[in-house]
Write a structure and sequence with these properties.
The complex is a heterodimer of chains A (about 325) and B (about 270). Chain A has about 325 residues and is α/β, with parallel strands linked by helices. Chain A has helices at about 50-60, 80-85, 100-110, 115-130, 145-155, 175-190, 200-205, 245-250, 275-280, 295-305; strands at about 5-15, 25-35, 40-45, 65-70, 75, 85-90, 160-165, 195-200, 210-215, 220-225, 230-240, 255-260, 260-270, 285-295. The chains are: A alpha/beta (about 325), B mainly alpha (about 270). Adenosine-5'-triphosphate binds near residues 25 and 90 of chain A.
C-alpha cells in the first residue's frame, strides 16, 4: 500500500495562448500536494484557478510542463492505476445515441466486466444516482443535471478506490446536491479517497476532512477548514410567521420580504444566531433556514496576501 | 489489448444509429436498383451499365461513408469532450486509435456487403427475366463472381481512405480533416500521372518533387478494376494481392503515425 493515494510534486502546466505567436501562459504553478488513503479532499479555488487543469493532469489528458502526478504510487496515466480510479469530468458529455445503460455497460466492459456483470452494475449505479427510470433513454434526451448524474455513475463503474470529481455539484438541483453530498459521505464511509473540486465553500464544509485552496495556479493554503480562519461576515436567516412589527421589536432591521410571509434577515457578526433563535421561538416565528455568510475564496486569498500571518497554512 | 474489440463494437453500434449512414446506404441501394431502369433504356448494353453504375455507386458512397464516419468518430469524441471520461478508463491511447479503426472497418464491411447484395440481386433478377439468347449476348454472366474482386478492391481502397481520415482527425478538427481527406482522394486517383511528370517538365527539381510526391501520396487508381471486370477482362489474383499489400503497408504507416501523434496530444 503506497503512503499516499494522490501525490502532486511541483506540478506545473503552461498553455500556449495566441494563434500566430503562441506564448506560454502558466495555468498551474509548482503545485505540491499529498492526499492520504481514505481522505476526502476539497480542492477549492475561484474560476480559472487551475482545478480542472490539475485533474486533467492527474488523468493524463494533458501532459505537465514540469513536475509529477502520482495516483496510488503510480505515475499519472498508468493503466493499472486507472483500473482503480473513477473520474467525473467537468460538464460531462457522452454519446448522444447511446442510452445511459449502454454507456455504463460499455465502460464496465472496458474494465473487463462480463456482459452480465456490466449490466447488473449499470442497473445498480443508475438506481443509486436516481436515473433508474430513464436508463433506456438516449443520452441526447438527458438534461444537464441528468448528464451530471450519469457522469457520477460512470465514475463508479469499477468500484474505484480513488475518485476524482470535477465540480460534482454543478448543474444539480437541490435534491441532486443533497444526494451527491450523501453519496460522497457514503464513499468516504466505504474508505475510498475522494478528491473533488469546487468553488463553493459550503460544499467543502459539509464534506471534507481537509481542503486545498488554489488561486491563480498556486496552492495558497491547505489544511482543515476550521483552521483556515475564514472570516464569518454574518448569517442569512429566513423566518416565517410574522410581520415587520415583531422584527422591529427584536431590533432587526436588514429585512427583505419575500412572498407568503417569509422574511430574509441579514444578521451582522455581532448578533450571532445562538442568542436570537430562542427569542424568535417565543414570538412564534419559525426558522426556515440559517446560512453563514463567509468571505469568498477570493476575499480569503486577498487577506492572505495582505496579512499572511493571520491565516494558518 | 482486450479493450480494442469493445471500442470497435462501440464504433459499430454508434455508426449504425447514425442517420447520415442510413441515408447514404439507402441512397446507394436505390441508385443500384435504378440502374436496372437505365439499363432498360439502352438495349443490348444493359448488364454492363448496371455493373458499371452499381460498382461506381458502391465506391462513391463507400468513400462518403469512410470519410464522414472516419472523421466524425475521433474528432467528435475530442470536440464534445466524451474522450475525457473514456481515457480515464484503462484504455491506452493507441488502443483507442486501433479500436476506432477496427470499428470503422467493420462498419464499412457491413455497408459494402449490403450494397454488394443489392447489386447482385438486381443482376440476378435481370438474368432471370431475360431470354436465353439475350443472355448469350453478354460478355460476362450477369452474376459474374469476378465482380467480387472489384468489390474487394473497393473495400481495400476504403480501408485506406478510412486510415487517412482517422490520421487527420487525430490532430485536426473535422472540417479540415474532411477537406484534406477529400483532397487526397482526388490526388490519389491522378497520382499515376506524377510518375511521368519528368517527361513533361524541364526543371530537375520539379521532376524530383513529383517523384517524391508519387511515392508519398496514396495511389488509389490501382484499386479501380471496374472497367476490366465489366468488360470480362481477367484480373489476376497476383494483381489483387499486390494492390492489397500496398494498402496494408500504407494503412500500417498511417496508423503508426496516428497512434504516435494521438499519444502525445493534450486534450484541452
Ligand atoms: N486549453 C487552454 N488554453 C489556454 N489556457 C487554458 C486552457 N485551459 C485552461 N486554461 C487557462 O488555465 C487556467 C486554469 O483553468 P482551469 O480550467 O483549470 O480553471 P478551474 O479552476 O477549473 O476554473 P472553473 O472553476 O471555472 O472550472 C485559466 O486561466 C484558463 O484560462
Ligand atoms: Mg474547472
Amino acid at each position: 500500500m503506497p503512503r499516499y493515494a494522490i501525490r502532486l510534486q511541483e506540478l506545473t502546466k503552461d498553455f500556449p495562448v495566441g494563434f500566430w505567436r503562441p506564448r506560454p501562459v502558466r495555468a498551474l504553478d509548482g503545485v505540491s500536494l499529498e492526499v492520504e488513503p481514505g481522505e476526502v479532499l476539497g480542492f477549492l479555488g475561484p474560476n480559472g484557478a487551475g482545478k480542472t487543469t490539475t485533474l486533467k493532469l492527474l488523468m493524463q489528458l494533458i501532459y505537465p510542463t514540469s513536475g509529477r502526478a502520482e495516483i496510488l504510487g503510480r505515475p499519472a496515466g498508468d493503466v493499472e492505476a486507472r483500473r482503480r480510479l473513477g473520474y467525473l469530468p467537468e460538464q460531462p458529455y457522452f454519446y448522444d445515441n447511446l442510452t445511459a445503460e449502454e454507456l455504463l455497460v460499455y465502460f464496465g466492459r472496458l474494465f473487463g466486466l462480463s456482459a452480465h456483470d456490466a449490466r447488473s452494475r449499470a442497473a445498480t449505479l443508475l438506481d443509486r444516482v436516481g436515473l433508474g427510470a430513464a436508463r433506456r433513454w438516449q443520452l441526447r434526451k438527458y438534461s444537464k443535471g441528468m448528464l451530471q448524474r450519469v457522469g457520477i455513475a460512470q465514475a463508479l463503474v469499477n468500484d474505484p478506490e480513488v475518485l476524482f470529481l470535477d465540480e460534482p455539484m454543478s448543474g444539480l438541483d437541490p435534491v441532486g446536491r443533497r444526494d451527491t453530498r450523501e453519496l460522497i459521505r457514503a464513499l468516504k464511509h466505504e474508505g475510498r479517497t475522494v478528491f473533488f473540486s469546487s468553488h463553493i465553500l459550503s460544499d467543502a464544509e459539509a464534506l471534507c476532512s481537509r481542503v486545498a485552496i488554489l488561486v491563480k495556479g498556486r496552492l495558497v493554503a491547505t489544511g482543515r477548514l476550521a483552521d483556515l480562519a475564514f472570516e464569518i461576515l454574518g448569517w442569512e436567516l429566513i423566518v416565517t410567521g410574522t410581520d415587520d412589527g415583531i422584527l422591529t421589536v427584536l431590533g432587526l432591521d436588514a429585512v427583505t420580504t419575500v412572498a407568503d410571509g417569509r422574511f430574509v434577515i441579514n444578521l451582522p457578526v455581532d448578533r450571532p444566531p445562538d442568542q436570537l433563535l430562542p427569542e424568535l421561538g417565543r414570538h412564534g416565528l419559525r426558522v426556515v433556514s440559517l446560512t453563514p455568510r463567509h468571505e469568498s475564496l477570493e476575499e480569503f486569498f486577498m487577506r492572505l496576501v495582505e496579512h499572511p500571518q493571520e491565516t494558518a497554512s | 489489448m482486450a479493450v480494442i474489440p469493445q471500442i470497435a463494437l462501440q464504433v459499430f453500434r454508434e455508426s449504425v444509429r447514425d442517420k447520415v449512414l442510413y441515408n447514404l446506404v439507402l441512397f446507394a441501394v436505390m441508385l443500384i436498383a435504378a440502374s436496372y431502369l437505365i439499363g432498360q433504356l439502352t438495349a443490348g448494353q444493359d448488364v454492363k451499365i448496371i455493373k458499371d453504375l452499381g460498382l461506381g455507386a458502391t465506391q462513391v458512397f463507400g468513400l462518403f461513408i469512410a470519410v464522414f464516419i472516419g472523421i466524425g468518430l475521433v474528432s467528435k469524441e475530442v470536440e464534445r469532450r466524451s474522450i475525457y471520461s473514456l481515457l480515464a478508463k484503462p484504455v491506452r491511447r493507441y488502443e483507442l486509435v486501433l479500436g476506432k479503426y477496427a470499428g470503422l472497418v467493420l462498419t464499412l464491411a457491413v455497408n459494402i456487403a449490403v450494397m454488394a447484395v443489392a447489386l447482385y440481386a438486381v443482376l440476378g433478377y435481370m438474368a432471370w427475366v431475360e431470354t436465353e439468347e439475350f443472355r448469350q449476348s453478354w460478355e460476362a454472366p450477369a452474376t459474374d463472381p469476378a465482380m467480387l474482386l472489384a468489390i474487394f478492391l473497393i473495400f481495400a481502397q476504403l480501408m485506406l481512405v478510412t486510415a487517412i481520415a482517422l490520421f487527420f482527425s487525430t490532430f485536426l478538427g473535422p472540417i479540415l480533416s474532411a477537406m484534406l481527406t477529400f483532397g487526397l482522394i482526388v490526388v490519389g486517383h491522378f497520382n499515376a500521372d506524377l510518375r511521368n511528370f519528368e517527361n513533361v517538365v524541364d526543371s530537375r527539381a520539379a521532376a524530383y518533387l513529383a517523384k517524391v510526391l508519387y511515392y508519398v501520396l496514396p495511389n488509389l487508381a490501382p484499386f479501380d478494376v471496374k472497367a476490366e471486370v465489366v468488360h470480362a477482362q481477367p484480373v489476376s489474383l497476383g494483381y489483387v494481392a499486390l494492390t492489397t499489400g500496398y494498402a496494408v503497408t500504407y494503412i500500417g504507416a498511417l496508423l503508426l503515425a496516428a497512434m504516435f501523434i494521438f499519444a502525445r496530444r493534450d486534450f484541452k
